[in-house]
Amino acid sequence: MAKKLCKLAKKGKLDEIAALALNARFICAKCGRTAAWSENLCKPRKIKVEG
Ligand SMILES: [Zn+2]
Fold first, then answer.
1. What pLDDT is stored for residue 15 in this prediction?
2. What is the largest CA-CA distance in the chain?
3. Which sequence spans correspond to the domains of the chain?
4. Cα separation, 51 vs 40, whole angstroms
5. Scanning 11, 16, 33, 48, which has the fewest C-beta atoms within 10 Å of its C-beta?
6. Distance 5 CA to ligand 1 centre (A)
7. Which residue ranges of the chain lie beneath pLDDT 50?
8. Closest to 32 (Cα-Cα) out of 13, 11, 17, 16
9. pTM over 0.90
């Protein structure tokens, strides 16, 4: 099962958070964290990329 950034943050797993946040394409609508994969967020929303 995929790790949720939202949970990692509570545990202070900054290294894992940083790795998952690289090239972020999704943002969590609930906690505002970003991740490259929607499965790592509890309420993922795709980040709109301009240009
Ligand atoms: Zn979240």
1. 94
2. 36
3. 5-46
4. 25
5. 48
6. 7
7. none
8. 17
9. no
